[in-house]
Specification:
seven-stranded parallel beta sheet, alpha/beta, 245 residues, TIM Barrel, 7 strands
């Protein structure tokens, strides 16, 4: 919940200037996920300036339309050319009471409207210290992915976000990130097949900064990063997007 629509437009203008001066490597893909109130402004700014960054959203509702005051549907997002939507972020699970079943329903709706879901999974500090981290992530993956065809799962993004590392300044060691990313890929193979496991993109998110981004991206099973506070300034966003290239 950062950047009103004026600030968001300024961000995109700064980002456009930085990327004109020094484009991202061709193999890198980036997306911006502003609040709902800024989506149209950011869409217009990205498209008018030809910024090579996809538009994303932070959440969507599990229904297309109806008496759900205050909610935004995936159908509405699709009309704004939203390419990615975050589903099941730990803050949504914790503060809005989102269950695994609800997260699956939201993922269904994103897929129905050809928006790529970024499925968030992760454990709390208590769960990690109790040795339950892998079981927690396995349950979340099973709830969201079981029964889906391999070709559908292949196109998804799974973001591992250890809850204890979000906004705390405490980052999982790269070895921890790699261990869980490998576990996620193995569980995807079990649920949807080896081809899906090879194709699915696994991200790490949790106090990512320009200083640790390159080390995290060197992990064999970490394909990308889900960045929070460090992405609020355009120069920091670009530095992370270029990390390790």
């Amino acid at each position: 919940m950062n950047h009103n629509h004026y600030e968001a437009i300024q961000f995109v203008q700064q980002l456009a200037a930085l990327l004109r001066a020094s484009p991202l490597p061709p193999e890198r893909e980036a997306s911006l996920h502003p609040p709902f109130t800024s989506l149209r402004s950011v869409q217009t700014a990205l498209e008018s300036d030809g910024v090579p960054v996809s538009l994303g959203a932070q959440n969507c509702h599990q229904e297309d339309r109806g008496a759900f005051t205050g909610e935004v549907s995936a159908e509405m997002l699709a009309k704004l050319n939203v390419a990615y939507v975050i589903v099941g972020h730990s803050e949504r699970r914790a503060y809005a009471g989102e269950t695994d079943e609800l997260v699956r329903a939201k993922l269904d709706m994103a897929l129905r409207h050809a928006i790529t879901p970024i499925l968030c999974v992760g454990e709390s500090l208590d769960e990690r210290e109790a040795g339950a981290a892998f079981d927690k992530v396995t349950r979340q993956l099973e709830a969201a992915l079981s029964g889906r065809p391999g070709q559908v799962v292949s196109g998804l993004v799974v973001a591992y976000e250890p809850i204890w590392a979000i906004g705390t300044g405490r980052t999982a060691a790269s070895s921890d990130a790699e261990e869980m990313a490998a576990h996620i890929r193995a569980e995807v193979a079990r649920l949807a097949g080896d081809e899906a496991a090879s194709a699915v993109r696994v991200q790490y998110g949790g106090s990512v900064t320009p200083d640790n981004a390159a080390e995290l991206l060197r992990c064999a099973n970490v394909d990308g990063l889900l960045v929070g506070g460090a992405s609020l300034a355009a120069d920091g966003f670009v530095e992370i997007a270029r990390a390790g290239a």
